[in-house]
Design brief:
- The chain has 264 residues and is of the alpha/beta class.
- The protein is 33% helix and 15% strand.
- The protein is built from eight helices and eight strands.
- Strands 1, 2, 3, 4, 5, 6, 7 and 8 form an eight-stranded mixed beta sheet that branches.
- Strand 5 and strand 6 form a beta hairpin.
- It is globular.
- The C terminus is likely disordered.
């Protein structure tokens, strides 16, 4: 059975993807195809390269996204996304899609041509950085003859690329939203984030129906895109929500492993 895993964007809420991966593997579910955008591209790439959930979580914990030592000099952004290359290269030694153990598709937005680009071959790290380059915060990433930003701008939940390739598609969606109050919009970046999320969610809900299983915890609503203080909580939400969903899922004929309770 060819299993596809779709990982949405969502900044630090992407730690829930890591919890989901832990739960899937406890159920002996190992996706062979992965599609990701933004934070989902980061998690998906590290997973496809061969790292386990612990290593991916530690990477999320250690990386400082809003690192103003990486100021974007002479570029349209606050932080230069390309300056994160060494950190990614320390884990992804072979900077090429050919080095991956699973098929991977990463979305990014060509800011000059206004088109979606799906990367699946060639150099790997720059497409990851481009896919996660949140507009207005990170400068566009130069790849080839153009410049790319966050894949979530045009496709935050890239299900379509896996539809013809997989028998089962599992989606991890971390961008659910609810009503808020003005007290939740304390800074300008909160407004930008809220607007960005509203646009993405309306488009993504149509794609969610194309998945066989979707993990979309509403509890993630209260966590911000750049909110790193609650990574463990976010991870646990992804893990527990996935475990609960798989317990109720009959179509994949899954068996709960004996070791599951020991690994929580």
């Amino acid at each position: 059975m060819k299993i596809g895993l779709v990982l949405s964007g969502g900044g630090m809420r992407g730690a829930a993807h890591i919890g989901m991966i832990k739960a899937l593997e406890e159920y002996k579910i190992y996706p062979t195809y992965i599609a990701g955008s933004s934070a989902g591209a980061i998690v998906g790439a590290l997973y496809a390269y061969g790292y386990n959930w612990k290593a991916i979580f530690n990477f999320f914990k250690d990386i400082q996204l809003l690192d103003f030592n990486k100021y974007a000099l002479g570029k349209p952004g606050i932080i230069d996304a390309e300056k994160f290359y060494p950190q990614f290269n320390s884990l992804i030694k072979d900077d090429n899609f050919n080095a991956l153990k699973k098929s991977l598709f990463i979305t990014a937005t060509d800011i000059l041509k206004g088109k979606l680009k799906i990367f699946s071959e060639g150099e790997l790290i720059k497409p990851i950085l481009a896919s996660a380059a949140f507009p207005g915060v990170f400068a566009p990433v130069k790849i080839g003859n153009s410049y790319f930003i966050d894949g979530g701008v045009l496709d935050n939940f890239p299900v379509r690329v896996l539809k013809s390739k997989c028998d089962v598609i599992i989606g991890s969606y971390v961008n659910c939203f609810d009503d808020i109050s003005m007290e939740d919009l304390k800074h300008s970046h909160n407004v930008v984030e809220r607007a960005f999320k509203l646009k993405a969610v309306k488009e993504d809900y149509k794609k969610i129906k194309q998945c066989d299983i979707v993990i979309s915890p509403k509890k993630l609503n209260k966590y911000g895109t750049f909110d790193k203080k609650y990574l463990k909580e976010i991870f646990n939400i992804g893990y527990s929500t996935t475990i609960e969903a798989l317990k109720n899922e009959k179509s994949l004929q899954l068996n709960v492993p004996i070791e599951q309770s020991k690994n929580r």
